[in-house]
Amino acid sequence: MISFILHRCVQAVIVVLTVSFVSFMMFTYVGDPVNNMVGEEAGPAERAELRIKLGLDDPVPVQFVRFAKRAALADFGISYRNAVPVTQLLAERLPATLELVACATIFALTLGILLGIYTGIKRKGILSHAIQMLSLAGISLPSFVVGILLILVFSIMLNWLPSFGRGEVSAIGWWTTGLLTLSGVKALILPSITLGLYQMTLIMRLVRSEMMEVLRTDHIKFARARGLPERLIYFRHALKNTLIPVITITGLQIGSLIAFAIVTETVFQWPGMGLLFIQAVEFADIPVVSAYLVLVAVMFVSINLIVDLLYYAVDPRLRIGNAATK
Amino acid sequence: MATLTEGIRRILDHDLVWNLRSSPAAIIAAIVTSLLFIAALGAPFITPQNPLDLASVNLLDSELPPAWMADGVSHYILGTDTQGRDIFSLVIYGLRISLIVGFLSVIMSLFIGVSLGLWSGYAGGWVDAIIMRAADVKLSFPTILVAIMLNGVAKTLLPAEVFQKSALLILVFSIGISGWVPYARVVRGLAMVEKEKEYVQAARLARRSHTAIAVSHVLPNTLGPIAVIATINLALAILTEATLSFLGVGMPPTEPSLGTLVRIGNEYMLSGLWWIVIFPSLMLVVLILAVNLFGDWLRDVFNPKLR
Description:
The complex is a heterodimer. Chain A is an all-alpha fold. In chain A, 78% of the residues lie in helices and 2% in strands. Chain A has helices at residues 2-29, 33-37, 44-54, 60-72, 86-121, 126-140, 143-157, 182-215, 218-225, 230-268, 273-282, 286-314, 316-325, and strands at residues 170-172, 175-177. Chain B is mainly alpha-helical. Chain B has 15 helices and no strands. Chain B has helices spanning 2-13, 15-21, 24-41, 43-46, 87-123, 125-139, 143-157, 160-165, 167-176, 180-194, 198-205, 210-218, 223-247, 258-269, 274-302. Chain B is globular, with a radius of gyration of 23 Å. The two termini of chain B are 39 Å apart. Chain A binds chain B through residues 11-12, 14-15, 18-19, 22, 25-26, 29-31, 136-137, 139-145, 148-149, 151-152, 156, 163, 255-256, 259-260, 262-263, 266-267, 278, 281-282, 284, 289, 293, 296-297, 300-301, 304, and chain B through 133, 136-137, 140-142, 144-145, 148-149, 152-153, 155-157, 235, 239, 242-243, 246-249, 259, 262, 266, 269-270, 272, 274, 277-278, 281, 284-285, 288-289, 292-293.
């Protein structure tokens, strides 16, 4: 148990350090920061002085440690393009992305579980086959194509939902939310579907195969023999046993959702961190780029770590299995 | 003549072909995939114009809708874009670039993954431990971010013109470097099983070198699963390339892949020019779906237990 946790923690630290190092390298070697700070008329002496003041003549490891220390305190310097502290920029954009990811997850879970149960129970039905085929298409559709098709149908042809932006947002402290206004909720629908579709098909396939597995087991046969109504068997006895893997997969996917929000945010011009990042990449706004990468690495790795540990805590079989092999 | 028909019969009776004939979805997928490959290879012969050659483009023909619509012109089956380039030709040329990037990335991932997997499985010990930990670390960060990161690094290290010219190679590198883990894991597992077998012992007694044994005896036994992974990897590589190009960190507009075309077309969708964005998107979906279906079938063939 302890070795497992340690192993996972070490791995998490390595990922974060690698990403930080790449970010740092970009920070240091993209152009000359001194050139960005002094005017044309600055002489070599002045430049050298500034160089020493900024610590740019220190050995690379020393500079990296300094970068890491500042990064740990959430200080990534000032955006070249917006001339605002990077941390402030990211904090402004964070709620939009997290809200989108949360809605996409809820969409994927609800629809994925429902369709999974249906196709798992009615394996031979025509509707089940149709859903199965659609799910294969869902996995093959690039998410930006999904977004573009949704915009074409629901925004341009039907004119029901907005094609870009967050709509009206209300502020609660430093957090902004679109869930309290009608236009905000409307604006969330298409991006959430776009972002969550792949996860939805994944969850659906998982629930389906788990349901089929569980329905074959003895305790279900026994429940049938007791004459329990089908609804009770499916939802109380079968579904419960499929939920642990579903929760694990959903948890592990949240990290990728945050990363893939870049694509959805670009399609819908959603003012989140992903759009900020991709615009920063375009303008070589290195402080923003590196801060985003480090932030996402930390989020991604900690979510995965928590899910792994929870899984370990929830499923006692893993612990017994581990003890038996020792 | 007799040998030819006999040859064809032998091909038709082969296991793989027999399996293929019994699965309609796989037949369709195989036909569509081969048609797309042929179209991509023969792009200059089947397209009415070379959309990347400015001399063959007529600006007066810009923004024409597909041929079956009211203002359509039969010369431009799928219409033209804002610069008067034929959408059909653009899509076929884009398909070509998408496939080139996809294949080269797969070759790179395959080469890295198989070598590391063989080494890891055959050598065992600390080599194995390091390679497998590296695989874990690789898996704990999204491919797309790795690719954007590498692309950013290349952009900063290379002078602007060199970067512009080598966009394709940089893209191949940033996608290819991420795909090695599945190959390495599978090949490692198989190599660990194979190396205990008697024929490997015999080869060792015959004093063949470790590298020679690994490559000429162990490797051939891993080819089936490698083919399966490579097919699925191809679909994934094409998808990643398209996504990167769509985000503007992939192929430039001067050398557009399908993803770049969707990116360009997306800007004109709100003004009603839907055909510029829809046809490249459809081509992308058909391509990925066909390759995926083919991969699914291949996996079932090599892994009868899963059926």
